[in-house]
Specification:
single chain, 215 residues, alpha/beta, TIM Barrel, globular, binds SN-glycerol-3-phosphate, schiff base, EC 2.2.1.2, transferase, Probable transaldolase, Aldolase_TIM
Amino acid sequence: MKFFLDTANVEEIKRISALGLVDGVTTNPSIIAKEGRNFEEVIKEITTIVKGPVSAEVVALDTKTMIAEAHNLVKWADNIVVKIPMTEEGLAAVNILSKEGIKTNVTLVFSLAQGLMAAKAGATYASPFLGRLDDISADGLSLVKDLRSVFNTYDIKTEIISASVRTINHVQDVALAGSDIATIPGTLFPKLWKHPLTEAGITQFLQDWETFSKK
Ligand code: G3P
């Protein structure tokens, strides 16, 4: 499974990229707004740090303006993926952009049917939102499992980006479910390599070594 960072915080991206753990980055308007930086400037900076796909989202709701925004976004760097919301207008934009060879990430996918529509329209990536389904007592993980199963059955090449990932268990579960990618917030990512037993083990080893060294 590939790991994307779901952030526009350049310090987080640099820190975790330095470990060789980042295959790509996803952003959305909320994530960009959180940084309080110019959209174009921050996306361009991210594309210089991460060589893999960097998703930048359109804000228009009509097809024509979405396409115009997409054409502008892809000029910023070679590794830009245009993030498009899962609507009728969005699907129309994805259909046109895919025929132009522009990579798209259909976002806000909450059902198997929506994932199938995104794939059929030509999406490079489809992003099911786990956490937001869990928030309303639905089952985000089941959606990822169902998408994996149906995409395998019909040999659909659209890659599944498990998004709205909130916990270590989410990451582990979507890996087991065969998600192509998990996109992970910068605050969650460091928790993936930490474990209290690792910390306790290191402390114990060092204490024993100190005791032994003094003898
Ligand atoms: O990748 C989508 C993600 O940014 C949404 O996450 O936690 O706001 O549901 P969340």
